[in-house]
Amino acid sequence: MIFITIFGKLKLLSPYLWVNAKSSKPLKEEMGITHQGRSEAVKRALSDFGIEDSFSLAAKRFKEHYHFDIGVSAVARSTKQTAMQAMHYVEKKTSDSDGEKAPLDKMLVELDGCEIRTAVLQESENTTGTTPVYGKPKRTKRVNWRDVRIGFVRPLDGTPKIFVGKMDSYPEVVEQLYGAAQYIGMTSKTEIVGVCDGGIGLPEALQRQFPTMQFVLDKSHLQDHFYDTAEKMAVPKKDQKKWVSTRVEAIAGGDVEKVLIELKEEYERSQNKRTKRLIGYINRFYDALDYDTFKSKGYPIGSGEIESAHKSIPQKRLKIPGASWHPDSIDPMLSLRILRANDWWEEFWDQRTEKLLAA
After folding, report:
1. How far apart are the C-alpha atoms of 150 and 310, rounded to whole Å?
2. H or E, element range at 306
3. What whole-number distance in Å separates Cα of residue 335 and Cα of residue 339?
4. Integer Cα distance of 156 and 195 in angstroms
5. Is residue 224 within 8 Å of residue 278, measured between CB atoms?
6. How many other CB atoms are found less than 10 A from the CB of residue 36?
7. CA 287, 291, 295, 298 torsion: positive or negative?
8. pLDDT tens digit string along 338-348?
9. With 80 as the cut, is the pLDDT of residue 42 above it?
10. Angle at the Cα of 323 (from 320 to 328), degrees rounded to 5?
11. Which of 94, 98, 208, 336 can bridge 86 by disulfide, Cβ–Cβ 3.0-4.6 Å?
């Protein structure tokens, strides 16, 4: 019987103990030791490496630190098993609003999405062949890109910053975000500021869950819409920066109506569809564009904080070159990275150790 520890592989002559001609399995039943099992220290090390690097590189790093081999598939299995437990841990943590927490006066909410590459093996409709060993129908890899949403809540002027995320619709992620907000001390009196881009369904999902929220449209996304409109209106390239900045700063200063009137007059002259689309965009976010006032209150006017979080949480591991994931693996692996981002890593492993000792 082999048991893997960070000191190497331990060979146990027998898992059985014979007492009065009767056998028992104290290693398995009392200590949880099974053949080819791994100690908590090994599981932690594999998860630590496997959540930061590809599983092949994680296996190399494990050998470098502990001086013996563990296969790439074993690293993947162990990391994904731990990730499933991490997902349940994060869900429980963000749904548990009990306990004494200092109520927050002001809170910031941000949410954004990115795409992760997925791959699923399916039986091919166009292939009639079978596999050589087992004679099963040949399968092909179906590649797709799936939306992963990440959000965070934090006190407007400080920490802690709590992240949530999953491969799901905005309303589902916002529900998890609401739990995180309660976790850090949101009350009915908390002033809530929400900053994000104008993605379809995103601001609406936030406002449904946080009805008193002051929504702030990311200023750079507004500028992008103006630049795109300037190009479609054939504004000369050398004049586009001035054309955009003049109008965006007018909006920031509270002159939304003045800019709308100018754009409507332009649309009446040219019937340019992109101009009409910009008018609709400004009207949609009419109450979220008072940037000078927002800045005077200490509100952020850009969503760079959550965009940076996408690079450091899901994309740093789930979007490494060549990576593709089974859809069922994404939420658990994401949860394992969220554990680290939320500084819950030590707490998660301490709780696992306590359970083992209690058993």
Report:
1. 7
2. helix 304-310
3. 6
4. 11
5. no
6. 10
7. positive
8. 999 999 999 99
9. yes
10. 120
11. 336
Helix 237-252 / helix 219-232 crossing angle, nearest 10 deg: 140
Please tell me the distance from the alpha carbon of residue 167 to that of residue 147, in angstroms, as a whole number. 6
Separation CA 87–CA 339 (nearest Å) = 9
For residue 328, the SS3 value is helix
Cα distances (Å, whole numbers) of residue 9 to 12, 37, 38, 176: 10, 10, 9, 41
Residue 280 neighbours by CB under 8 Å, 6+ apart? none
pLDDT digits (tens, 9 = 90+) for 181-206: 999 999 999 999 999 998 889 999 99
Tokens of 323: 């990576």
In residues, how long is the chain? 359
Give the pair of three-digit tokens for residue 87: 């997902």
Buried-state track 50-59, b at ≥16 Cβ within 10 A, e below 16: bbebbbeebb
Look at residue 256 in the predicted model and tell me its pLDDT: 97
User: pLDDT, tens digit, for every residue of 233-249?
Assistant: 999 999 999 999 999 99
Separation CA 359–CA 351 (nearest Å): 12
Contact 127, 138 (CB under 8 A): yes
Give the separation between CA 112 and CA 307, rounded to whole angstroms.
7
Claim: this prediction has a pTM higher than 0.85: yes
Query: Could you give the C-alpha distances from 120 to 46, 116, 330, in angstroms and in order?
Result: 25, 13, 13
Are residues 187 and 102 in contact, defined by beta-carbon separation less than 8 angstroms? Answer: no
Report pLDDT digits (tens) over 15-31. Answer: 666 666 666 665 555 55
Decide if pLDDT at 357 tops 60: yes
Report the mean per-residue pLDDT for the chain: 89
Mean pLDDT (whole number) for 278-302: 96
